[in-house]
Design a protein that fits this description.
Its EC number is 1.3.8.6. Helix content is 51%, strand content 16%.
Length: 398
């Protein structure tokens, strides 16, 4: 049997990384290979999320790892991106978990919460003892948060929340939900007939809060996404996030999650490429490995180019983020490119694997299915195209 060279040996990305960044990457790669890969096909088939892995991820420092203090690792943006890449090389669902926990729920509390809120929730979430979710998307308007219908009204010294959310990761497992709702109290940003979007920390044990896992998914099957019903959910007055006023609050968290996707999608793409290379070396047709054919080598070369370009783009964005100069439009460049190219690579790899490519003997169809979800959440291709179009023309086409 011929052994294919490692794609890492063809393009020396390690030379661009610090020893600390490489250490984070290797730690994530080891977890993915030792814990996730042996069970992920079974879990995908069974629609099973392994709750016991959450604590392990916390022990490794991956949860909220880019945040400072409160038990968080305080790692750099590139280190966090590399962890996302390695986890998604195993399965998009596990990178999604780390994103929901750290980039969405924990970031919301860290960015906008009071000191009391940070102390109450962040250490347990960083350790994997507590799970959070981020309840923004609604059934009728995933790409239009300004049109949300969930409301929060003052009731004495507290708040009452009513409404519905959809496609909320981890909600049925979570201990706390960051719920975004519109308020019409002038003291809290409303008034003049308008309503401002504010964030609330809602313990999921609160009466009236119901999270129902969404069934029938053909993607992200080893992950959990839910419908949420908020029926007269009453929380204390101090449940509001004091630092988040308007849509800049949830968008600030979404950009954190989008950044992780830029790296993560390239992990799925790398996994598909590696499968295609392995199969092209092992499978013989007409008396020779299919990888000895020019057409196959051309396909592999093109796939490899896109993986390496995508990782280099992610690295560039990571360095900008560490300097504090990364813009939302630049994140849109990364999210749009990484997911679009990862899907194209997954489809090309499936073709190279021929009939065997549709089976779970190879990870390619699972990655392709998962990437359809990644393509949709945190902004569809079209949303990011419009963000970039506005940046290029100065004209708003939304």
């Amino acid at each position: 049997m011929t052994t294919a060279p490692s794609i890492d040996a063809v393009f020396d990305l390690d030379a661009l990384l610090s020893s600390e960044e490489l250490e984070w990457q290797q730690k994530a790669r080891a977890f993915a290979q030792d814990r996730l890969l042996p069970v992920i096909e079974e879990d995908f088939e069974a629609k099973h999320f392994r709750r016991e892995f959450v604590k392990e991820l916390g022990d490794l420092g991956f949860l909220g790892m880019h945040l400072q203090g409160y038990g968080c690792a305080g790692a750099g943006a590139v280190s966090y991106g590399l962890v996302c890449l390695e986890l998604e090389a195993a399965d998009s669902g596990w990178r999604t978990f780390v994103s929901v926990q750290g980039s969405l729920a924990m970031s919301a509390i860290h960015k906008y919460g009071s000191e009391e809120q940070k102390q109450q929730w962040l250490p347990g979430m960083a350790a994997g003892d507590l799970i959070g979710c981020f309840a923004l998307t609604e059934p009728q308007g995933g790409s239009d948060p300004a049109g949300m219908t969930t409301t929060a009204r003052r009731d004495g010294d507290g708040w009452v929340l009513d409404g519905a959310k959809r496609w909320i990761g981890l909600a049925s497992l979570a201990d706390v939900a960051v719920v975004w709702a519109k308020v019409d109290d002038p003291e809290f940003g409303g008034g003049d007939g308008g309503r401002a979007v504010r964030g609330f920390l809602v313990p999921t044990s609160t009466p009236g809060f119901t999270a129902t896992p969404i069934d029938g998914k053909l993607s992200m099957r080893a992950s959990v996404q839910c419908d949420i019903s908020l029926d007269g959910v009453r929380v204390d007055g101090d449940a509001i996030l004091p630092g988040a006023k308007g849509l800049s609050g949830p968008f600030g968290c979404l950009n954190e999650a989008r950044y992780g996707i830029v790296w993560g999608a390239m992990g799925a793409a790398r996994s598909c490429l590696e499968a295609a290379i392995e199969r092209s070396v092992d499978r013989e047709v007409f008396g020779k490995p299919i990888g000895a054919n020019q057409l196959i080598q051309a396909k592999l070369a093109d796939m490899f180019l896109e993986v390496e370009k995508g990782i280099l783009l992610a690295l560039h964005l990571g360095r900008l983020k560490e300097r504090g100069t990364l813009t939302p439009a630049q994140i849109s460049v990364g999210k749009l490119n990484s997911v679009r190219e990862a899907l194209a690579i997954a489809h090309e790899a499936r073709a190279i694997l021929a009939g065997d490519g549709i089976t779970n003997a190879w990870p390619v169809m699972r990655h392709a299915a998962n990437l359809e979800s990644v393509r949709t959440y945190e902004g569809t291709d079209e949303i990011h195209q419009l963000i970039l179009g506005r940046e290029l023309t100065g004209l708003n086409a939304f």
